[in-house]
Each structure stands twice: as C-alpha cells, then as structure tokens.
Amino acid sequence: MSRVQNFCPPPGQVGTVAFVFGFLAWMRQRQTLPTAGELVERYGMTRATAYRYLRRYRDVMGMEDSP
Description:
mainly alpha, single chain
C-alpha cells in the first residue's frame, strides 16, 4: 500500500514553525482526535512519533487520555 501525499510535505521539507502551525490548524478543525495511523498516513511519520504528537497535543489542550 502506498502512502498518499496530502497537501503537507514531510516536516523536514518545511520550516518547523510552518509545520507546527499547519499541524495545529489541521488538529483543531477536526471533530475528534486522529488516530496514530491517520498521522502516519498524512505526515509520513513513524507510529512512535505519531503517538508522541498525540500525547503532547492532549497534554497541552488539557484533554484526558483515551481509555
């Protein structure tokens, strides 16, 4: 299965600040948190990195962990 490249290039190809703002904008427009698999597909990151991003987003936004 090949990964579909969405509008966001991998983080190494854009500035860190631009990536963060794009990532946050995408996260905030969603009704629910994405799964780690969705982050892997969209951004081409590893599953471990996806889980780390989700944990940090939940921490910053004051959200509870999923059961």
